[in-house]
What we know:
This protein has 21 helices and twelve strands. The protein is of the alpha/beta class. A hairpin with a 4-residue loop joins strand 2 and strand 3 (38-43). Helix 8 (199-237) packs across helix 9 (239-251) and helix 8 runs antiparallel to helix 20.
Amino acid sequence: MNVKRFTARTSREAFALVRQAFGEDAVVLSTRPAAEGVEVTAMSPDSLDQIEKVAATPPEREASPGSARQRAESLASRVERANAQRSLSTSREEAAAAGTGDVDDDVAQLSMSTLSFQDYVRERMLKRRQQAMNPEASPAPALPAPMATPRMAAPAAPVARAAAPAPRAATAPTARPTPTTAQRLAVPRLHEEVAIPTLGESVSRREEVDMVSELRAMKGLIEQRFGALAFMEKLQREPRQALLAQKLLDIGFSPGLIRRMVDALPAQAHDETAWATTVLERNLLTGEAEPALEEQGGVFALIGSTGVGKTTSTAKLAAAFATQYGAANLGLVTLDAYRVGAHEQLRTYGRILGVPVHTAHDRASLEDLLDLLSGKRMVLIDTAGMAQRDSRTRELLEMLSHPSISRLLVLDAAAQGETIDDVITNWRAAQCKGVILSKIDEAVKLAPALDALIRHKLKVLGVANGQRVPEDWHRLSSNALLQRAMRGGGAATYRMEAADVQLIFAAASHSAAASHGMHV
């Protein structure tokens, strides 16, 4: 692990040394004051990758049955134990042939410790593996049976003793039978299949995983803090950018969009507010260059959440069309069968215009009505108002999936920016022909709605600013909408001070600002 300490007078100089040594992706481990100024401990990003590889690599199978004491034994001690084993085996056979010895001597010779048995198992496993890798080589002489392993002095570890042999007859001593090769291999084969990691290895692996997690969290926190400090320092060096950020935040634009605007502010711009208005106007899509909806004709279904003004907007659009082309070329359909007496409002407007209103309860009846009204120049469909997260919203969208139907999403300009984003996503605004912005006369700040339209690249086809039919139906240009939004408004309680603006932008994510896709 390549870890170094860097000392400088200030933290900025210390971090410059870190970047010079390890690059932009260096991992800072600690920062603390020192006698010379500031001391920073850092390491290269390659070291972090090595730690992650070590944490991801499982422990070797061969080392798992062993313990710390077993791995600490040296080769010399193993040789001594083997010599002692052979000498004890010889003396035991001689004593058995001569008829000497007693039960206690046999028990002492046959007993063994856990460490000696594990040595035997490991050596047997290694020997079998070598024979499997080199089948042509001649087999080595078999290891002595585990019964013949001498007892190891291990007072601190639990000792596993073999069962004591039965007493021998005093009159006719006989030689003890030697275990066969199959008997000697039976116990190692059972232990070869069981690999249980020791407690020390489990704790060590858990500590490595925890260390990697802590390093990742520390790296993310450092990157976030450095980004926030860099942005705040930039605002302090550039007062024009700070003023622009505070202005846009006061009128209601999102911090992500403001960060993108501030980063792109040119040095030669004399009026930052005028420059921002021009940029936002270029990114706001409107249908001012296209023919009006009443001039285009076709089948339009107005969709949206509850209470956004779909029925009133339908009546305004129908009145504008009937004034220009006559009521005989207009068809009205309502799908609002959920609310009590909901279709009566549209029927009232239809009686005023002299146009009958038809009701469709399902997709089959809607398709029949579309065939019946196929000769009309324009057909308007009023739908039921539902919350954007209502399960019936998907059913309504599937009902309006007829290829001849163009959907128009009605948005409440007075709603919160987060609510407008949620409505745009759940009502699938990307599949709509455009957006009708309603209730702009009730909106204290128009910027949140325009911010959402800019980020989602939606086109404004109509604007409603009141309840009068059809007087409060307009087509506004992007310049007119931005000029209205830049006037701002609201109580002084909700206005930000300079310190509050820096605090908000310090917590903002830099990745969120880069996802807007604006053309600056």
